[in-house]
Design brief:
Layout: E1 6-9, H1 17-27, E2 33-37, H2 41-49, E3 54-57, H3 62-72, E4 86-88
Parallel strand pairs: 1-2, 2-3
Antiparallel strand pairs: 3-4
């Protein structure tokens, strides 16, 4: 199975988004994950430290989300522009290289 991009909230009703990220990275280490949260920067920092390609604070800016998705796309890999609410891991590799 190839996963192009995953966008996930961190706090969700029935699943913990941080556990989801850790589990997904165990099964699909190259899957680019974009994590979003409005619950504070600590959760986003933890998500990024544990495998999220990019993190976004809520309310999500449409242009920032589009830029994160475009950057994370396996056929693109364009570096994200520096923004205060947007951070990206620069160590992502394409699923095509697996």
């Amino acid at each position: 199975m190839n996963i192009d991009i995953v966008v996930t909230d961190i706090p969700m009703p029935n699943v913990d988004g941080l556990e989801f990220i850790l589990s997904l990275k165990t099964l699909f280490p190259e899957a680019p994950i974009i994590a979003v949260s409005g619950k504070g920067p600590e959760l986003l920092a933890y998500a990024q430290d544990n495998g999220a390609y990019a993190v976004l604070s809520k309310p999500i800016d449409h242009d920032e989300l589009v830029a994160a998705i475009a950057s994370a796309a396996p056929d693109n890999h364009t570096p994200l522009p520096p923004r205060s609410k947007l951070a990206a891991r620069r160590t992502h590799r394409s699923l095509d290289t697996v």
